[in-house]
């Protein structure tokens, strides 16, 4: 009897060891699938609009247009103060575009990461592989985030529709609409609430700004955000899930299938319901894209992240954890490192 005790203890020890390792692996997988992928403490408070913004961002628009180089991963928490005081229109536009472009590229990068993971899981499932409970949960959450209803299991999802929704927005379109809706960053909503796209909210769980002159009895507010990138991400999610933009998603999928460029000009006509101005609004979007050569940015990507890239003592962190940029330097402090690279079948 006693000779079995060491064997029993060894078995228990091995079970505990491997069981613990399994739980660690599961926790790591869960963090990879469901982690918050925006590191807000690495989004910087910018210098005033007139104080060398391009040096701080690490790039200039003319250089990017000429070289097709990658855009540095320098993300602003808000637009530069004083943008409305910039007298020269071309300079004001330059400040606005340079501030917003990295954020749009980052938001698209996050969408593309989700899309690639989704395609991989769909491919495995089609080959007969069983998705893990965690993977199935992730797929359900993505489907629900993108507006698919009555999702109780992966079998309830129309993956063709979901893939049409989980896709990037052309930077030229995002820039043009932000410029129109925010007056090139000068509107009260942009200045006070990082609201670039004029999205309304009726939810008490959202921050919001009451429009001046709102009629008595109405409850809508313009949704406000703590960080610019959240305004960009909510705008993209709106285009990717709202039923009124079904035509945009179908047009984008058609262009992708035909291996044709997906540009702001190509998708702008599908935005007729974005504004009460309808055709006039679409005309303005196309004009802003064309007049400012915004399609130059549609093929750009962010520069690869560089782990550990930092220069000490050239910046600080404010009380909210937002990094403040030193105007005389264009590199980041060590505590503000660059951000690394988080239905029933319905009609679409």
Could you provide a short overview of the structure?
By secondary structure, the chain is mainly alpha-helical. It has twelve helices and seven strands.
Q: How would you sum up this structure, described in words?
A:
The structure is a single chain. The protein has 348 residues and is mainly alpha-helical. The protein has a single domain (40-325), classed as Lysozyme, CATH 1.10.530. 47% of the residues lie in helices and 5% in strands. The chain has helices at 4-34, 53-57, 61-67, 89-126, 133-145, 159-165, 171-182, 188-193, 228-241, 246-257, 264-267, 279-291; strands at 43-45, 75-76, 200-201, 208-209, 221-223, 315-317, 323-325. The strands form two sheets. Strands 2-1-7-6 form a four-stranded mixed sheet. It has a three-stranded antiparallel sheet with strand order 3-5-4. Helix 4 packs across helix 9 and helix 7 (171-182) packs across helix 12. It starts with a helix and ends in a 23-residue tail after the last strand. 34% of the residues are buried.
Task: Using brief descriptors, characterize the structure shown.
single chain; 47% helix; Lysozyme; mainly alpha; 12 helices; 348 residues; globular; four-stranded mixed β-sheet; three-stranded antiparallel β-sheet
Q: Number of helical segments?
A: 12
Q: Name the CATH class.
A: Mainly Alpha
**What is the radius of gyration computed over CA atoms, rounded to a whole number of angstroms?**
23 Å
Using the 3D structure, state the CATH architecture.
Orthogonal Bundle
């Amino acid at each position: 009897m006693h000779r079995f005790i060491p064997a029993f203890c060894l078995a228990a020890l091995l079970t505990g060891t491997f069981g613990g390792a399994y739980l660690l692996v599961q926790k790591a997988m869960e963090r990879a699938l469901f982690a918050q992928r925006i590191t807000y403490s690495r989004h910087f408070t910018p210098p005033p609009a007139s104080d060398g913004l391009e040096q701080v961002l690490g790039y200039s628009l003319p250089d990017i247009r000429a070289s097709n180089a990658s855009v540095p991963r320098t993300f602003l928490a808000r637009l530069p103060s004083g943008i409305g005081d910039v007298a020269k229109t071309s300079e004001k536009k330059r400040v606005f575009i340079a501030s917003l472009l990295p954020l749009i590229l980052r938001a698209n990068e996050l969408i593309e990461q989700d899309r690639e993971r989704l395609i991989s899981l769909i491919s495995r499932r089609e080959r007969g592989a069983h998705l893990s409970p965690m993977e199935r949960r992730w797929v359900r959450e993505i489907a629900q985030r993108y507006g698919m209803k009555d999702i109780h299991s992966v079998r309830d999802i129309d993956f063709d529709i979901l893939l049409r929704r989980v896709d990037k927005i052309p930077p030229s379109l995002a820039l043009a609409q932000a410029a129109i809706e925010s007056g090139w960053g000068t509107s009260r909503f942009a200045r006070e609430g990082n609201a670039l796209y004029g999205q309304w909210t009726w939810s008490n769980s959202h921050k919001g700004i009451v429009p001046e002159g709102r009629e008595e009895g109405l409850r809508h507010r313009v949704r406000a955000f703590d960080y610019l990138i959240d305004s960009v991400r909510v705008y993209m999610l709106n285009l990717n899930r709202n039923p009124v933009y079904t035509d945009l998603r179908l047009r984008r999928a058609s262009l992708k299938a035909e291996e044709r460029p997906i540009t702001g000009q190509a998708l702008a006509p599908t935005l007729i319901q974005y504004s009460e101005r309808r055709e006039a609004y679409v005309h303005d979007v196309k004009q802003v894209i064309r007049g400012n050569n915004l399609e130059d940015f549609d093929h750009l990507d962010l520069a690869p992240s560089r782990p550990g890239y930092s220069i000490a003592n050239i910046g600080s962190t404010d009380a909210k954890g937002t990094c403040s940029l030193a105007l005389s330097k264009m590199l980041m402090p060590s505590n503000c490192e660059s951000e690394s690279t988080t239905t029933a079948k319905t009609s679409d």
